[in-house]
Write a structure and sequence with these properties.
Layout lengths: L19 E6 L3 H17 L7 E6 L5 H10 L7 E9 L5 H20 L6 E5 L2 H7 L9 H17 L1
Parallel strand pairs: 1-2, 1-3, 3-4
Bound molecules: ligand LW54GNZ2 and ligand LTPLIIQW.
Catalytic activity: (2S)-2-hydroxy-3-oxobutyl phosphate + 5-amino-6-(D-ribitylamino)uracil = 6,7-dimethyl-8-(1-D-ribityl)lumazine + phosphate + 2 H2O + H(+)
GO molecular function: 6,7-dimethyl-8-ribityllumazine synthase activity
GO biological process, one term: riboflavin biosynthetic process
Length: 161
């Protein structure tokens, strides 16, 4: 079993001045909703204000890079980081592999182009069971959305402000 969860938090972070975007896909809604809730729960635990958490949705994970870049470049939003959230579950074709690979690389490019943290919130699962466990919907693992919320606070406070 892979080591679970973030490494221990290395210092106390105060996210009260941060503005964080969450953009989520609409595929696999029950799992997505749990991951988004986990991310928001952790953002608030780090004092990020509810009004400073901007949540939007896109059709699927393939649209996450475009939306993430648009949110980060939106001068009206003034986001410090974005958490793209998607759940990709292997089907019967190679569609899964191509989306996983392209979205992963595209999200990294958004980070490099915008110089703002893009937290990797995409589950790339072979089964629905794997995805449900990683959203905390079934026992055995924690809600990975909480990890992503914590990372979205740490990174801009450490590197972007
Ligand atoms: N199969 C999954 C998809 N597929 C849809 C694509 O992400 C994209 O929206 C479509 O190809 C139009 O461009 N998306 C997920 O998020 N999860 C899946 O399991
Ligand atoms: C991740 C996907 O695109 C996948 O769920 C689509 O299923 P299929 O490969 O059977 O078309």
């Amino acid at each position: 079993m892979a080591v679970q969860g973030l490494g221990a938090i290395d210092q106390q972070y105060d996210g009260s001045a941060l503005r964080i975007g969450i953009v989520h896909a609409r595929w696999n809604k029950e799992i997505i909703d749990a991951l988004v809730a986990g991310a928001i729960k952790k953002l608030k635990a780090f004092n990020v204000k509810e009004e400073n958490i901007i949540v939007q949705s896109v059709p699927g994970s393939f649209e996450l890079p475009f939306a993430s870049r648009s949110l980060l470049k939106d001068e009206n939003l003034k986001l410090d980081a974005v958490i793209p959230i998607g759940v990709l579950i292997k089907g019967s074709t190679m569609h899964f592999e191509y989306i996983c690979d392209s979205v992963t690389h595209a999200l990294m490019r958004v980070q490099e182009e915008t110089h703002k943290p893009v937290i990797f919130g995409v589950l790339t699962c072979l089964t629905e069971e794997q995805a449900r466990k990683r959203a905390g919907l079934d026992p055995g693992m924690h809600n990975h959305g909480e990890d992503w919320g914590a990372a979205a606070v740490e990174m801009p406070l450490k590197y972007s402000r």
